[in-house]
Structure formats: C-alpha cells, structure tokens
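Q: What does the predicted 3D structure of Transportin-1 look like?
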Amino acid sequence: MLQRTQDQDENAALEACELWHTLAEQSICKDMLMMHLPKLIPVLVKNMKYLDTDMVLLKGDVEEPEVIPDCEQGGPRSTAVHKMLVYLSEKRKRQ
C-alpha cells in the first residue's frame, strides 16, 4: 500500500491515501499503523500539496502549524491524508 500511495497515477495514490485514513479510524488497526509510522508519514507528507483555499480551511483543524508542509507546493491530493496525519500525530503525543 505504501507503493500505491506513491503511484504516478493520481487516482491510485488517492485511493491508497483514503485507505490509510480508513484504517486509522479502525481501533483494531491503530497499533499496526503505529508500527509503520516511520515509513508512512514521510511518504504521505511528501505527496501532500495544498492550495491557498485549503490552507484557510485546514488551519482550524491543526493546533501545530509545523504539521502542515510548505503550502507553496500546490494543492492537496486529499484532505483525508491531512486529517489522518493530524489524527496519528495527536495519538502519538498521547502515548
């Protein structure tokens, strides 16, 4: 699934990102995801791109601006990726 997240086909990459988000919401999958965070987070962050309008909408969801990559890179593939990263980041802080 990590390979699909980096796929050149944007639709395949988007589907993989949405699957990561779905897995993060399932309590049974959270521990498994935590083990893969060192590999997963860099891939997701690398593929995130934001439009100015998305930055305005997402600012209310994030307490730590450093979680958001440089917005000069363009538009996001999916806000689901952003939400999953925020969720996993918050979960990691609680542990």
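A (community wiki): The structure tokens above were generated from the sequence. Helices lie at 2-5, 10-25, 27-47, 52-59, 79-94. The radius of gyration is 13 Å.
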